Each structure stands twice: as structure tokens, then as C-alpha cells.
Amino acid sequence: MPLLLHVQNLTGGYHADHPVIHDINLTVNSGEIVGLIGLNGAGKSTILKHVLGLLDPLAGEIRVGGLTAQEDPVQFRSRIAYIPETPKLYAELTLREHLELTAMVWQLDSEAYKNRSERLLELFRMSDVLDRFPNSFSKGMQQKVMILCAFLVEPALFIVDEPFVGLDPLAIRSLLDLLLEMKSQGSAILLSTHILGMAESYCDRFVLVNSGEVALHGKLDDMRRQAGHPHDTLDELFVRVARGEL
Ligand SMILES: Nc1ncnc2c1ncn2[C@@H]1O[C@H](COP(=O)(O)OP(=O)(O)OP(=O)(O)O)[C@@H](O)[C@H]1O
């Protein structure tokens, strides 16, 4: 499996004199879902912001398909679609215009746009609100706009930050099915979530961060071995790390 995302010795944060993540190493291969998990404030979103190129590393390096954001910001960014924790929408654009703008920026051809958008709108039951403005949408519907835009692009790398909050069970199922579909088509997916049962079922590997550092990583069995608790669930390992037992 080709290496898609390579984060090497990343130290970073919001102020040069106050790093909040330290010496982070993680990889995501093509065709793989990696779960990024940790307590509130552990540093997950900060890692994701660095991967997206929204923050500059204080030390270390991030490569997507072999390229850093500094070498070629446009190419770097074009390989990534991001589903943020909180929907970020344009109040003055309808759902249709959000989709059209996304297609334009990512230079989708009209056939791919038509096929993908029709399927996604139907899957997430949003066809009827195509010409409405998102500020009239519920929170879950707003989250769906972000999801539709990301899956429209079908990028090499998906960055997904706590996407399940506010979604109804049908939408959660559709999102998980789509992530599995993208994975089988060769996309790499880095998924941050607090829903550990879901992470355990869907992720191939994990990176468990605690206080800005990687505490455990690998497949569930690797982490059990690192922790010395061969029968733990992901949830039990998480609690041990959070309590400072490991
Ligand atoms: N915009 C910001 N400016 C300064 N510090 C920040 C900012 N955002 C987050 N932090 C700090 O960075 C640290 C890591 O926060 P981060 O948002 O990465 O955690 P998280 O693991 O994503 O948490 P959560 O599960 O609550 O989303 C925390 O100490 C937080 O206070």
C-alpha cells in the first residue's frame, strides 16, 4: 500500500513559544483508515490543522503524496478534502452553489459532477433542499453539506474531524459506507473521533494522543502489546492512557 500521508517528528501549535503537540509521527497509506483518538484537548484537531497546512510546523515535516505544503501549496491542498468538526459554510450560497463552487475549485468535469452530486444528494436525502441557503438548515443538515462537498471531490486523502456529531443514524451509516467505498478505491483516510466503538470497527490502525504526544499507535493488537494488556478493548486502552496508567 503506497504511503499517502507522512507526518514526521511534528512539533507544532498556535504560538512559536508554546507548542501543544510534540514529536508526532504518523502515517496513512492509500486504502487505509487511521483513527486519531484522544481526550478533549489532547491535540487531535491541532494535528489535523497542521496536516491541512493551516498551521506551519515548528519542527518536523508533513508530506502528502511525497509533497510538503511549503514546496507546492496548491498541489498539496488539491490532494486533500476536509470534513471539519464544525460546519463552515457560506451564508450567501445555496447548497447547489456550494457543490458547484467545490466542483469548480477542484476542476471536476461536468459528468463526474453530475453523477456524484446526484448520488450523494439522494444518499443524504438533501435533493429537496438544493436551492436553499444553509443558514436555514439544521445542524445535521449543515454537517451534511460539508460531507457532500468532500465526497464530491473524491480526493487522495480525507481528513475527517469528529464527523458523526449531529448526524442521524441513517446519515452515519451512509457516511461510513462512503468512507469504506473511498478506502476500497485507494483513498487514505485520517479520522478523528470520540466514538471508540465505531473507530474499533472501522479503522485499520490507530494513533492515540495524550497531552500532545503519541501514547500508543498501530493496530489494536500492536497497542495491546505496547500496553501489556493483550485482551483490552480500544476503550479500555484509552481509559488506561487517560488515567496515566501507561
Ligand atoms: N486556536 C487556538 N489557540 C491557542 N490554543 C489552542 C487553540 N486551539 C486549541 N488550542 C490548544 O491546543 C491544545 C490541543 O487542542 P486541540 O483542539 O488540538 O484538542 P483536541 O484533541 O482536538 O480536543 P477535542 O477532542 O476537544 O476536539 C489544547 O491545549 C487547546 O487549549
From TrEMBL:
Pfam family, one: ABC_tran
PROSITE patterns per the UniProt record, alphabetical: ABC_TRANSPORTER_1 (PS00211), ABC_TRANSPORTER_2 (PS50893)
Record InterPro entries: AAA+_ATPase, ABC_transporter-like_ATP-bd, ABC_transporter-like_CS, ABC_Transporter_VariousFunc, P-loop_NTPase
The entry's keywords: ATP-binding, Nucleotide-binding, Transport
Domain ABC transporter: 5-236
GO molecular function: ATP binding
Designated name of the protein: ABC transporter ATP-binding protein
Annotated source species: Tumebacillus lacus
Origin organism lineage: Bacteria, Bacillati, Bacillota, Bacilli, Bacillales
